Amino acid sequence: MERVNDTALLLGRLLMASLFLPSGINKAMGFGGFAQRLAEQGLPYEQAVAAVGIALEILLPIALIVGIFPRITALLLIVFVIAATGIGHRFWEFAEPARRGQEINFYKNVALIGGLLFYYVSGPGAWSIAGRSVGVRAAQPARA
């Protein structure tokens, strides 16, 4: 059973990273356009915000994939998703049909935060750097 849990945790990490990493790379390749979109949304220091956002969106999924610093990675990704959702998916400001698309993305991000909370609690499993360094096996329920 432990092998199944470790496999599921690895697959979960890979699937979560598949949302962030390509997006971060695309934003890096179109840095100017991304910074411009941030400026259009009223963010100050759009170049700096874009650079930090891109760095997080590339480095954190790599940490997620290899399973290093799982709790820190989960918390930083949660903060990133909250910020990105607040900046980019304020569905209540849109008219139909764009409103529906933004609402879907908003709630997708809420679900993503839920998945990251699971990662925070469960850890990365044995097939990770953190799992190898401490001998962590698949998620075990917390004991009170």
Can you give a write-up of this model?
The protein is mainly α. The protein has one domain. It is 76% helix and 0% strand. It is built from 6 helices and no strands. Helix 3 runs antiparallel to helix 4 (70-88) and helix 4 (70-88) packs antiparallel against helix 5. The longest helix is centred in the first third of the chain and has 28 residues, at 2-29. It is globular. The model has no long low-confidence stretch (mean pLDDT 91).
What are the key terms here?
6 helices, mainly alpha, 144 residues, 0% strand
* Radius of gyration (Å): 17 Å
Tally the structural domains.
1
User: Mean pLDDT, rounded to whole units?
Assistant: 91
Number of helices: 6
Assembly context of the chains? single chain
- The total strand number stands at 0
Q: CA-to-CA gap between the ends?
A: 23 Å
Low-confidence stretches: none
Described by the principal axes of the CA atoms, the overall outline is: globular
Report the helical percentage. Answer: over 70%
Largest sheet: none
Category by helix and strand content? mainly alpha
Proportion in β-strands: under 5%
H/E element order: HHHHHH
